[in-house]
Specification:
The protein has 129 residues and is an alpha+beta fold. Helices cover 31% and strands 21% of the residues. The protein contains 4 helices and 8 strands; from the N terminus they run H-H-E-H-H-E-E-E-E-E-E-E. The structure holds zinc ion (ZN) (2 copies).
């Protein structure tokens, strides 16, 4: 964890370590509220958002817009060798899972169109529901 921060030129702070560690150990994407509750007490909202933004920019985490209106965050980069992975949204428990090896950037667009960003969202029910 420490190395990851250092490699990205991010100063190691207690909050950053806790934040990155928490997302690393989470099996599915976490909303801002999940994160805030997990880190507890004295976490300032703007500080948390700022750090999430810095992590996202460094490619340590990625943000998922699952259309619930609340962004969720998961450990790791969204793009791996240029391929963005897909996300599974459970309509029953609203949990968002990262689905690796789903090659969503292979979708062909008409000539003259330029794809900037592909976000694949799969909806359904998860194994726990
Ligand atoms: Zn579920
Ligand atoms: Zn993901």
């Amino acid at each position: 964890m420490e190395d990851l921060l250092q490699k990205q030129g991010l100063k190691r702070t207690k909050l950053r370590m806790a934040l990155l560690g928490y997302l690393f150990n989470s099996k599915h994407a976490q909303s801002y509220l999940d994160i805030k509750n997990a880190l507890g007490e004295q976490v300032d909202k703007s500080t948390l958002y700022r750090n999430l933004g810095a992590f996202e920019e460094a490619g340590l985490i990625h943000r998922i817009n699952d259309q619930s209106g609340m962004a969720k965050y998961a450990f790791g980069a969204l793009h791996d060798h240029g391929n963005a992975h897909a996300h599974f949204v459970c309509e029953s428990c609203e949990t968002v899972y990262c689905i690796e090896n789903a090659n969503s950037s292979k979708i062909n667009v008409p000539e003259g169109f330029k794809t900037k960003n592909v976000q694949t969202i799969i909806k359904g029910t998860c194994a726990a529901c």
